[in-house]
Amino acid sequence: MKTFSLSLMMSVLLLTSFTIAHAQTKRVVASKNYVTQKVEADRFNAIQLLGSADIVYRQSASTTVEIYGSDNIVPLLETYTSKGTLTVKFKKNTRIINRGKLIVKVSSPELNKITVNGSGDIKLANGIQTNKNIDVTVNGSGDIAGEGFQCEAITVSVRGSGDIKLQKIQSKTCVVSIAGSGDVVLSGQTGEAKYRIAGSGDISASGLRAVNTSASVSGSGDIKCHADKKLTARVSGSGSVAYKGNPKEIDAPRKKIRKL
């Protein structure tokens, strides 16, 4: 009897908490009356996007943040810098219905890390030029795209269904991993390339010229790559590896790889 009473009490408390939280959630429909709001921002070298807003980043000498959207949506968006990371997200207990256009335009002298957690997109309007490393990550269904990257090393990671498209890369190393159904498209030139898929996503990097390349597929994903000197490939599952170039050394199961 005591156990039943305790269970009943806990159920009531959980239901009450859910009801209160649901009641406190603010539902907003975009007015479509568009405004632009400039936001004060401390200097940052990393961007973290949480939620469904879109970001357009442009590398420049100044640090700026500007929000364009409906006049009743813009005030609900939070932008703040902590430990060098600019975070963009909606305020708590906010549910946006049909947000319309919502673009956060940002700029900074340096950018080394870009992360999307959610469905928002990030466009790197003029690429990134740095003598450091660049880390690009999508967790969820959002996309990241840009053209013109010069760096020491670039790391690309997709966990979910989002896509990453980076063109005109110039780097010493490039490491790409996919866990999920998202796709990665790359072009440019690098020294060492490492590709890994665990899932159904695809890596299209035949346009990224590499000296040495290693490719690993676990699942149904496909890798298209390039190798000038050495190609190492491992495939388990129904996926495949296809390559361009004329590598002098190939370490791969012949049945699972093909030349493009």
TrEMBL record:
The Putative auto-transporter adhesin head GIN domain covers which part of the protein? 43-247
Q: Which residues cross the membrane?
A: none
Q: Which InterPro entries match?
A: DUF2807
What span is annotated as the signal peptide, if there is one? Answer: 1-23
Keywords of this entry? Signal
The record, for Pfam families, names: DUF2807
Protein name per the record:
Putative auto-transporter adhesin head GIN domain-containing protein
Recorded source organism is Bacteroides pyogenes JCM 6292
